[in-house]
Amino acid sequence: MSGAPFDPGLQPERTRLAWQRTALSISIGALAFSRIEADALGPWSWVCAVVGAVAGIVIGYWSRARYNYTHRTLKAGSAKLADGLLPLVVALVVFGAGIVAVMAALAGNAAT
Question: Each residue of 79-90: pLDDT tens digit?
C-alpha cells in the first residue's frame, strides 16, 4: 500500500503487525500441537495441523485486507471502519483449538 501513514503514531500499522504475529502463532502452534500429540491422535494430528495452518494463512490474508481497508478509509476521512468479524473468527479458532487440546489430553489419559 503506497502513501504516507494516516497516523503519525502508526497505530493501524502496529495493529496489522499484531494480527500477522497472531496468524503466525496460530499456524506454528497447530504444527507444534500435531507433532506433540501425534501418538495420542494418530493421523488426526495432521488434520489438526492442516486446519490450523490454513486458519493462520486465512487470518494473515484477512488482516492484510483489513489493514488496507482501514488505511483507505482513514485517508478518505470516513468514519466507517472494519467490523469485528476478524476478532470473532480468531476467538472461535482459539476456542476450537482449546477444545481439541482438552480432548487430546483426555484421550491420552484414557489410553494409559
Answer: 676 678 888 989
